[in-house]
Amino acid sequence: MNAEFNACPRLRREGGRLRLDGAALDDIAHQFGTPVYVYSRAGIEDNWRRIDAAFGARDRLVCYAVKACSNIAVLDVLARLGSGFDIVSGGELERVLKAGGDPAKVVFSGVGKQMWEIERALRAGIGCFNVESAAELAQIEQAAGDLNRAAPVAVRVNPDVDANTHPYIATGLRDGKFGVGIDEAEALYDEIQRSPLLEARGVDCHIGSQVTDIAPYREALQSTVALADRLARRGVGIEHLDIGGGFGIAYADAGPPPVEDYIAAVVDAVGARPYRIITEPGRAVAGSAGLLLTSVLHRKRNGGADFAVVDAAMNDLLRPALYQARHDIVAVRRRGGETRAFNVVGPVCESGDTLGRAHLADARRGDLLAILSAGAYGFSMAGNYNSRTRPAEVIVDGGEAHLVRLRESIQDLIEGECLLP
Ligand code: LLP
After folding, report:
1. pLDDT bucket at 4, cuts 50 / 70 / 90
2. Do the domains at 3-40+287-414 and 109-280 have one common CATH topology?
3. From the alpha carbon of 286, which atom of ligand 1 is closest?
4. How large is the C-alpha radius of gyration of the chain?
5. Is 86 in the pocket of ligand 1 (CB under 6 A)?
6. Better-scored residue on pLDDT, 255 or 187
7. Alpha carbon of 364 to ligand 1 centroid (Å)
8. Higher pLDDT, 366 or 168
9. Are strands 276-279 and 23-24 parallel, antiparallel or unpaired?
10. Is 287 close to ligand 1, i.e. is its CB under 6 Å away?
11. Are 356 and 320 in contact (CB under 8 A)?
């Protein structure tokens, strides 16, 4: 593949034009306007299949983490591959069902599930609730009683490992809000065993996101597998180990190991134990398969720095502002001449509204820039700050671009609001 775009392997420069799976990005910008998220169907499929295939003969279920990119067309593409789904809300469940996902392959994570969400998930027949506290377990049991339907559960344990990622996306530390301490988990499994309304299905953990090192997985699995062994000795028959997601991908400042290496470490740690392995990758499926296309509005120079003011902003792609994430930004059509660094900034009234830096020969009104590795936690974290409408979403499938989400209109923006009487 093209080494220029390590962060987005399906991108190529041909005859001066940047193409994603054969579709020219300038054509997409003209057809659908900017800012626009563009995803490669083949990229999403390849990423999912690589993860799935890395398990070899091992029994496994790859449950795509819907939060990474939740457009129903993306979920449909994955459902057709046989993917399971990791959800964290009733909204995500409805998306999965709408996209034709199999509820039996859904795992429901999250620290604050509401009663209506639990009931809806039980009625839909989801595969497993990943339970994050004793209080939540009691709530699930109550819902199961009300609906007269046993609830499949796994306890999310907190293995207390440092995933060495940005603190906002590290979730495996003891003092965080996630999961229950590994030493408290056995008591919860006792509760589950006692209840005719609860069925122990597995043990769950998730250590964080954009983890670029394999060691934290090894460490987390050591204690998680040891817990599973203790449970087995106590006669708690679990079926699966859910190792969560978190596999890192390439950004401007990250070159993580190939996803196969993470999976090999996991498979090795589980060894000959008979458990099905569940994983919940989001970023590793959607991240490199998507980009955000934006147009330059103005060029300006302030205090010796060059700025390209573009029509995308922090409300469209929050990661740089929130995590100081560094996405590669490239010109869709390169201009001749020496390049220099431009700060690529959006129109929002905050200094933090910076999308990154790009090396460009110039930045003139109408020039198109592609912000790479934006398929995960891009649109799904977009908002309406500054009353900006959220971008359109497009999927390239076999060289053809399809609109899969209309750009929000001003009418959409104020829909549901009203004046005082
Ligand atoms: N499973 C659970 C329980 C999770 O909380 C997450 C992500 C995943 C799976 C998927 O993780 P992934 O494979 O995508 O790393 N907004 C941040 C990332 C937040 C991740 C939250 N949880 C970002 O833009 O970097």
Report:
1. low
2. no
3. 14
4. 22
5. yes
6. 187
7. 36
8. 366
9. unpaired
10. no
11. yes
Tell which residue, 377, 306, 291, has the closest CA to residue 345.
306
pTM (2 d.p.):
0.97
Cβ neighbours, 10 Å, residue 417? 6
Catalytic residue at 205?
no
For the chain, give the percent of residues with pLDDT over 70: 97
Measure 193 CA to ligand 1 centroid, in angstroms: 30
CATH H superfamily, domain 109-280: Alanine racemase (3.20.20.10)
Q: Convert 71-96 to b/e letters by CB count within 10 Å (16 or more is b).
A: bbbbbbbbbeeebbbbbbbbebbebb
| Residue reference for tokens 């593949």 | 1
CA of 282 to the centre of ligand 1 (A): 6
Q: Is 212 in the pocket of ligand 1 (CB under 6 A)?
A: no
- The CA dihedral of 356, 359, 361, 363, to the nearest 10 degrees, is -10
Instruction: Give kind and range of the element (H or E) at residue 224.
Output: helix 215-233
Orientation of helix 182-194 relative to helix 134-147, angle to 10°: 20
Cβ of 206 closer than 6 Å to ligand 1, yes or no, is yes
Query: Rounded to 5 degrees, what angle do the CA atoms 168, 171, 174 make?
Result: 120
Superfamily of domain 3-40+287-414: Lyase, Ornithine Decarboxylase; Chain A, domain 1 (2.40.37.10)
The whole-number pLDDT of residue 415 equals 96
**Domain definitions of the chain by residue range:** 3-40+287-414, 109-280
**Helix 115-124 and helix 134-147, axial crossing angle in degrees, nearest 10:** 50
Token duo for residue 222: 């050591």
Tokens of 362: 């110039």
**pLDDT tens digits, residue range 37-79?**
999 999 999 999 999 999 999 999 999 999 999 999 999 999 9
pLDDT digits (tens, 9 = 90+) for 199-221: 999 999 999 999 999 999 999 99
Dist. CA 268–CA 246, nearest whole Å: 18
Beta-carbon-side half-sphere exposure of residue 117 (alpha carbons within 13 Å) = 17
Quick one: the chain helix, strand, coil %, rounded to 5? 35, 25, 40
Pairwise CA distance, residues 411 & 285, whole Å:
33
Q: In sequence order, which residues have a C-beta less than 8 Å from that of residue 226 and are 6 or more positions away?
A: none
